[in-house]
Design goal:
Order of helices and strands: HHEEEEEHHEEEEEEEEEEH
Shape: globular
Mean pLDDT: 97
Strand content: 15-25%
Strand order of the largest sheet: 8-7-9-14-15
Distance between the termini: 27 Å
Helix content: 25-40%
Structural class: alpha+beta
Radius of gyration: 17 Å
CATH topology: Creatine Amidinohydrolase
Number of strands: 15
CATH superfamily: Creatinase/methionine aminopeptidase superfamily
CATH architecture: Alpha-Beta Complex
Number of domains: 1
Low-confidence stretches: none
Amino acid sequence: MFGSSLEIKTPEQILLMREAGLVVADALAAVRDAVRPGVTTGELDRVADDLIRSRGATPSFLGYGEPPFPATICASVNEAVVHGIPGSQVLAAGDVVSIDCGAIVEGWHGDAAITVAVGDVPDDVSELMRVTEESLWRGLAAARHGGRVGDISHAIEQFVHSQGDYGIVEDYTGHGIGTEMHLPPDVPNYGRPGRGPRLKHGLALAVEPMVTLGTKQTSVGDDDWTVVTRDGSLAAHFEHTFALTADGIWVLTAHDGGRADLERLGAPYGGPA
């Protein structure tokens, strides 16, 4: 343990998290391939659920929280930022859908999210998705042994603001992860560098910027789960789980461990060769 609250993993435990992370990566890839006009968010949920269970893993989200979340994925369409409940909603050309997915392998969690365009979308929406995903990688690349959580937060905020007038959602954050899906510390998507808990080998975090074309202000829908932008502007959400190893950053929910993007950004890759 680090301090009195942060869960530090052994290399063997990180390997189990990598197994969970690869299940999540494959589930998200399967859902991405299934996104098209006319498909329902409930059908996407079944794709992810089938994939996770076929691997002998357990969905992290199903039954989570209060009221219990009723599905395997979160499917958040257009102005929905996060925690959308999949069901009968039919996707149409021009929509964007954010898919958040978690899986458990032998008690260890993986958690990641992508935003997918349904057919062609306007240029500003494509750019929103690019900025949000790249801000995730800038945040991941800022993690260093001996650094602070705020270094990750600042890197995300700095990149987003350098790209245009976007809203960065502040009410929902990344988080520690391991034996539970949500552990300390919180990982905000804004903040000052050099602040917050210190980063240490064996710490695993889920980093997840949520960015909008308008306001950062959000509201929760009548279902007590779905978070939407107050001004109705479109949102994007990307997430990865990573562990800090003795060698650097290992993105447990990326098929290549994050190697290509980390090396592109000059950050140390911490996974297997």
